[in-house]
Design brief:
Elements: H1 18-29, E1 34-35, E2 43-44, H2 48-58, E3 62-72, E4 78-80, H3 89-96, E5 108-110, H4 111-117, H5 129-137, E6 142-154, H6 160-163, H7 165-184, H8 188-200, H9 207-228, H10 232-255, H11 279-294
Parallel strand pairs: 3-6
Antiparallel strand pairs: 1-5, 2-6, 3-4, 3-5
Length: about 300
């Protein structure tokens, strides 16, 4: 069917170009105003292109727009895989400095914004090339995200995320370190490595790691607010997000078998300027952590 549609062109490189090479090969042939990538094992929902193009049409400062994502497991189970339902451009910018709120197959990009960067995807960041691109795009415009799930991500053991997770983390940390360098200087790579592993990768921390991450997050919060916020309300909004992030880190550490980490939640006043954890959550987390700490 696709071959009979005159709007569709099938491109075949003469050799295997790798992930970044193939994406750049396709991008070089694109002639449209917007770019909507889709990996071979994922699915676009029928309304994806229409809704994202309409959003970009209506918001000329927006350089990329993502969407919610449905995760499809090998056993056929589906669920909306998105615990970061944030659409505000400032909050999305913050999340890009502490996580990755965008699935590559869900993003539509503005071609003119990419042209300002001088290059599409950089080979030295392969596997994290999309994350690095998002950060470069922040220099020329705003991110956006539609709450509707418009892409299906097929989860399987051969996903790049699983196959080369260590390389992916290292290159994502390299991209994030570049964003941190104006605020953290020589400490930027160490901070980025911890953030990618424990915030992006959702890996539980221990007491020693929290002692490192806390000061880094405080400095990142100050640097981000000084750079990107213009009002007291915006600053308070970001501080509340940072407070939630800090509790998530401490909660994960406590529940993974380190209940003694709970007081760490109160040790960083700059990371507590938002809704605190409920008493029931703290008690439950300590109980889970204590049980796990007693297991052989």
């Amino acid at each position: 069917y696709a071959a009979r549609d005159p709007r569709i062109r099938l491109l075949r490189p003469e050799r295997n170009l790798g992930i970044v090479g193939a994406r750049n090969f396709g991008f070089a042939a694109c002639r449209g105003t917007y770019i909507a990538p889709l990996d071979h094992d994922d699915l676009s929902h029928p309304d994806r292109l229409r809704l994202q193009a309409a959003h970009l049409d209506a918001n000329p400062r927006t350089v990329m727009v993502g969407s919610g994502v449905v995760e499809l497991r090998p056993d056929g189970r589906r669920h909306v895989f998105d615990d970061r339902q944030i659409s505000d451009p400032l909050l999305l910018r913050w999340v890009l400095h502490t996580d990755n709120p965008f699935a590559w197959a869900s993003v539509m990009l503005r071609r003119s914004a990419i042209d300002q960067l001088g290059a599409f995807l950089l080979p030295e960041f392969e596997y994290a090339d999309d994350y690095e691109l998002y950060h470069r795009l922040l220099r020329v415009g705003d991110p956006a995200k539609l709450p509707e799930p418009l892409t299906t991500y097929r989860w399987h053991q051969n996903n790049t995320t699983h196959r080369v997770s260590q390389v992916l983390e290292a290159r994502a940390a390299q991209a994030l370190a570049a964003a941190y360098r104006p605020w953290l200087g020589e400490a930027a790579p160490a901070a980025a490595t911890l953030v990618i592993h424990h915030l992006c990768g959702r890996q539980p921390a221990d007491a020693a790691t929290l002692a490192q991450l806390g000061p880094f997050l405080e400095r990142i919060l100050v640097g981000f607010c000084d750079t990107y916020t213009t009002t007291a309300a915006e600053r308070a909004q970001i501080e509340a997000q940072a407070a939630g992030l800090w509790w998530r880190l401490v909660r994960s550490a406590v529940r993974s078998g380190h209940p003694a980490c709970l007081p760490t939640a109160f040790a960083r006043p700059a990371l507590r300027r938002g809704p605190g954890a409920s008493l029931s959550d703290m008690v439950t987390s300590c109980g889970i952590g204590l049980v796990r700490s007693l297991r052989p």
